[in-house]
Amino acid sequence: EAVENCCDESEDERDWVWLILREEAQQHAYNEPLLASFLFSTILNHKSLEAALSFHLANKLASPTISSTLLMELFRDALEESKDFRLACRRDLIAVKERDPACTFLLEAFLYFKGYHALQAYRVSHWLWSHERKAMAYFLHSQITKELHIDIHPGAKIGHGVFVDHGTGIVIGETAIVEDDVSMLHHVTLGGSGKKYGDRHPIIHNGVLLGAGATILGRIEIGEHSQIGACSLVLNDVPSFATVVGVPARIIGRKPGRNPASEMQQDFRSSET
Amino acid sequence: EAVENCCDESEDERDWVWLILREEAQQHAYNEPLLASFLFSTILNHKSLEAALSFHLANKLASPTISSTLLMELFRDALEESKDFRLACRRDLIAVKERDPACTFLLEAFLYFKGYHALQAYRVSHWLWSHERKAMAYFLHSQITKELHIDIHPGAKIGHGVFVDHGTGIVIGETAIVEDDVSMLHHVTLGGSGKKYGDRHPIIHNGVLLGAGATILGRIEIGEHSQIGACSLVLNDVPSFATVVGVPARIIGRKPGRNPASEMQQDFRSSET
Amino acid sequence: EAVENCCDESEDERDWVWLILREEAQQHAYNEPLLASFLFSTILNHKSLEAALSFHLANKLASPTISSTLLMELFRDALEESKDFRLACRRDLIAVKERDPACTFLLEAFLYFKGYHALQAYRVSHWLWSHERKAMAYFLHSQITKELHIDIHPGAKIGHGVFVDHGTGIVIGETAIVEDDVSMLHHVTLGGSGKKYGDRHPIIHNGVLLGAGATILGRIEIGEHSQIGACSLVLNDVPSFATVVGVPARIIGRKPGRNPASEMQQDFRSSET
After folding, report:
1. Which CATH number fits domain C1-150: 1.20.1440.230, 3.30.1360.120, 1.10.3130.10, 3.30.530.20?
2. B244 in helix, strand or coil?
3. By C-alpha distance, which of C186, C225, C231, C233 is closest to C206?
4. Which chains touch C (3 or more CB pairs under 8 A)?
5. ipTM
6. How far apart (Å, rounded) are the C-alpha atoms in residues A150 and C40?
7. pLDDT tens for each residue of A201-242
8. Does an H or E element contain A158, and which?
9. How close B198 gets to chain C, by Cα (Å)?
């Protein structure tokens, strides 16, 4: 698959995500001259998706106390060293485009979705965290929280193809694990239970959909392809392919074979067996 | 009514909203010298409410990639071309003052209420959207979401006299319709149901009150002058004058004749019949 | 106790909170050179915790319409005039470190916790409010809400040793009272009930824990050392040492002698009697 090859050394492999972004940027710049300079500096002026992403995030997260150039170098270092990150930033982008009916261009996801921005910036903070640069990881975490209103602890582990929609108010704790192809809406909390140390946040398995305001507390497991209804409070394990809802949540249905994170079906009335 | 006449060409008609704002600004500048320069540049230096609003919003939404002067011109264009917008920005202002007991001056609503700012900036993005400038509309939407933490899709339709209190975390989807004289608190979601295209977000009729954290999903209708309790999840139509609460919500009362959006009565215990 | 003495004139008394902050800042600057200049300008360059806090908050809350230097002077004035504030800013800091297992240094709480920043900036706005400088208090409130996404009305009364975790989306109304040693998570609302004037927001007694998304409406009292479950909606008084949960909330347990705000035990399953 083309995404897999983005970082291969083979000259033949094309980075089609980046090629599409460039093409869309050219088209948008032509249609909306007011944005031409923004699109040039953010996309067209760069040689790779990695360079463009570093530039764009650095502009969003700079502050009077840390310059955008310094941040940009940090992001480029993380992207250069981590092939996993290079794959993830493409798969997350595709996930937005595939799952959000309001997103008609890959370019929109890249430029404007703050859930996407916060997730990629978290990936840098997690890279710092894993390399024992916890002070810098905390600094970056603090900037992400302040500028994008999404609070992902640098210690959390998050897979590929994750779609964070809207994103305002999301909180993901230090020992949380989010596997691949998960979708989550705004106000989701993956929180701890009590002032103990060690593993104390949830594990979200592949393909789960977390509805707006879903609050999941403690070291519990949310089984793959399950769906947590909006406004629900979950304090116990949830089996795979289940739909749960309520405060506290109870199971209202189970449909093996479905893929709620991809369907983005938030209205769970249709999920009953 | 004076508001109606704000944009008439008759010289006799006075724009009393603007006159009050100027008078209050003078009084505040006299009482609090630290704010004098801010009040002069934001209010007293301008010839109309339109000019002041454009200046104020542009300062709030500028970024390293788009200058405040460019945004200010854009806002002035939208206000100049749309009489509907000129009426709405006054009626929304009056709605804040009339419905919020913590708001004692029209000036406070104008200068400080981010729900008011996000709503007016959304009106500009909707004007762009309606004129087939979707790229620019998305850009502006992204700035509003980043700077004001309120996520109103440019395609949504919102009436006049709407009061957005506090506002943090509000999400209003692409095909949502909000009629006149609605009040909503923070964390309200008017969300879609699933990855389908076309009409997929709620219709909120006249005079509805949406409590803090109310989450309304799918193409359902919330009848006029009904009240959605705080923290409620609504997945079905709600009749007019009803009060609903819970996750998922159920009807707990009905009182024809009342006007919850104006009363701002969030405690629904008293609304039972 | 050392905290009590921070502002004594006795030369013998050491401000150990400030001494720890300085020591940690030196250590962090040594380990992470990228942060050295930030740590120098924010901590090491200052002669007191008051000076450092004023500088740090001013940088976070400045805007094109108000300079950071003007804000810094305002914060220093408030800290100089109010011994209560000087004690509170230390006790709140210690509360973060003691109650958050993800916080390993006092320095992290001081530099990075936006709940801490919003609470201290609110204390300045409340000082302005109490000195009849309401216009300036509203201005500052507006900046806190915009920059830190936490909306505490300047008129609210908040005690010492209060821990605001994560913080995004919190709303605390004009007549709310929060006593000492309370802990609250993100999305908490202490809201009014209706458009009446006078006392209309809750009273939260000592040592209460307010879970994520807890919404408490009206002039009700939450008894000391009680625990409000995440996502709960509370419309009635809650007795001391009780645990309540649900929409609307009901009492599910009572355990005299416990201290939920200190334990941060959000998972209330274990709290039943």
Report:
1. 1.10.3130.10
2. strand
3. C225
4. A, B
5. 0.94
6. 28
7. 999 999 999 999 999 999 999 999 999 999 999 999 999 999
8. strand A157-158
9. 31
